[in-house]
Please model this.
Amino acid sequence: MTVTGKLVRVYQVDKQIRGLKSRLRAAERFLGEQSRLLGELEAKKVAIEGQLRQLTASASNEEGEASRVNERVEELRERMNNARTNKEYKALLTEVNTLKEERAKHEDGAIERLEKIETLRTQLAEIEAQHAERVRMTEVAASERKEREAEIKDRLKALEGERDQVIEDVPGSALQAYDELVEQREDEAMAPIEIADRKRHEFTCGSCMMSLPVESMSALLSHGSLTKCVSCGCILYLEENTREAMTPAAKK
Ligand SMILES: [Zn+2]
Model:
């Protein structure tokens, strides 16, 4: 078998391995995305819960202030009832009016905070519902990932064993060239030569579709030596029907 023929065997096994792993990778990406979204919702939840704690404390503080001022108002009213002079009465009345304004300010402050609390509680309920939904999605994603992994395990192991066998025959330098290309191009590391026009000796690269010199075809036909596309650099090979089409009938 030629170097190219040996590499094609490795390439075909690798393509199957990548195909198998791609479903697992997709499941992993999906799980990653679900976990990320779940994390975002958790952060939002924590932030709103913090705001709620703060607002609840400050609302009850305002309510406390309002009732403290109110007690003072009641006290002053009592004293107004017992006022001995008009002057004393008027002084107390002025003080009461000032305190009433202060009380109203605290009451408004409390109401304002209670309204904000109401809005935040609605938001929190929505986020909690989304969170519960996302938890379910994450669980589904995790079990899907596990399933994909189990699904391919045996087949993957068999293919990896097959790969170990077929690479044994491949010369080190060719394997290295191939591995480097796989690193960059995955399934496009190798490509078949395609016949554009046999009579005119027009051939193209199956990966980049650019035309190839006739030497590429003859190198593969005669020695099957490592032949790269002059345009994209992938390793070229001949499919069986192309080889047959290029071999004169007498030679078959
Ligand atoms: Zn090419």
